Amino acid sequence: MTLTLTEKKKYSYEDYLNTSDDESYELIEGELLMNPSPTPNHQTISGNIELELRIFVNNNKLGKVFDAPCDVHFDDENVMQPDIMFISKERLNIIGDKNIQAAPDLAIEIVSESSAYRDTERKKRLYAKFGVKEYWIVKPEEKTVEVYVLDNGAYRLTNAPKTANNVESPLLKGFEISFETIFNF
Fold it and tell me: Which of 3, 31, 48, 49 has the fewest CB atoms within 10 Å around its CB?
């Protein structure tokens, strides 16, 4: 079966799996959304963060780090691909053969012009709903990083994005990364 994206208004996980082209998609509240190819700047920022995070996680034997595209299957209407995610060693059982089958502990999104509303509003709300403990929103144009922690089902901003020189993770004690490292292009 070839799925034509104009056939339905509300899509399911099964529809998502049946997309026939080679594009990258996310399923958000039953809406099938294509992910445009990342820019070189986006890829550099993502690589800089992922490298530092992966070294820290591996050196401390804390769990696993993944990068996009890697599906996180929350439910039948929500399948997302965070730019970077961390799953603690206590929760490695959520890693399936084809996807991550529950909320990662940490999700990081790097905002692009085409993804700003999706990353800062829709995904933020859904990541909180499904229990992502820490969420970073990286804004390349502003050279800022907002770090949110889940607090009673909603996100609370933990840092002043424009005043610090480093980003620290409340979840991963001891992990910090400088803005210079993140935005070095």
Answer: 31
